[in-house]
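Holo prediction — 2-succinylbenzoate.
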Amino acid sequence: MKIKQVILRHLKLDLLEPFTTSFGTEYDRDFILVEAKSDAGISGWAESVAMVDPLYNEETLKTNWHMLKDYLIPIILKNEILHPDDISEKYFKHIRGNYMAKAAMEGAVWDLYAKKQNASLASTLGGTKKKIEVGVSIGIKDSIDSTLDMIEACRVEGYKRFKLKIKPGWDVELIEKVRNVYPDIPLMADANSAYTLQDIDRLSALDDFNLMMIEQPLAYNDIIDHAELQSRLKTPICLDESIHSLEDVRKAIKLGSCQIINIKIGRVGGLTEAKKIHDLCVKHDIPLWCGGMLESGIGRAHNIAITSLPNFTLPGDTAASSLYWAEDIIDPEVTVEKGTILVPDLPGIGYKPSLEKINKYTIHSQTFNIS
Ligand code: OSB
Ligand code: MG
């Protein structure tokens, strides 16, 4: 397969509501869309999940643009790509880090490859599920009552799992009050690295509330302290920020740093690495779920495809487009019914990027042609 042209676009979408985590508040979402075109005039699409500021990880929209423009796109335009797995295994292998940028480039080629096979991206990846179960991620609010209102709204919608963002001071009391109102809902907490081992008493207090898991309580780059914490907590630890590769997963399993893993395609450098992590976790009985990065519909479509693999046994963060956006950039939008999304069986990502809407939200674009 020969890629003839790649188009980068910087889009900005307003969030319907601000989203607050322990590291900051997002009011809108700037992101890069990658469109890869082949000789047959087919386009593959993906989005970079890097944010404007390096608060979740070290990547940013600008570092991703730079990596794509100056390194990744030239490699893709220069080489004949027989299979998308070759991108991470051969072509991007010598480039360190920059996982979100790599994942965006690779993802566009995966979509294109699946479209050329006339197969869905889900089935091309080895996905078997026809529908997936999803939950919601609820940001830090100004009161416990508004958190309870949001839970109720999502519960009525049928979402299968409720993830509450926590930070020191917005944790034990919050979870206790939510549990009092909802003794049985599948509930979990995500700290986005807001704690240290010094906070062991506060974290142990969460053991009383039957949480499905606590996500990334300790440092974004740690797997050692997490292993100690896990040995002292009843609640399973799920790693998010600390996992970038199959090697990271192997080491985390070996150390006992977690019992569950959240896969984000961007954070692990793409779909090929995500598949490998999936397969290793099957061998070690580590359940998976697919995380989210406030994606537009294009990123959501990729998340749905990877979640169709069998070991994504826990509901993920891929909620409906309408929870985040007044208008999404794909047709149809991602819809959730009774907490489930039907995995599309159309070719590629299975949702049509709307050029009209994409153009409406594009701030800047650049086109790269084969030389
Ligand atoms: O830690 O999972 C996270 C959003 C931005 C950055 C990090 C995270 C999140 C979320 C939102 O929790 C997940 C979503 O897209 O619904
Ligand atoms: Mg997280």
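READOUT: The chain has a mean pLDDT of 98.
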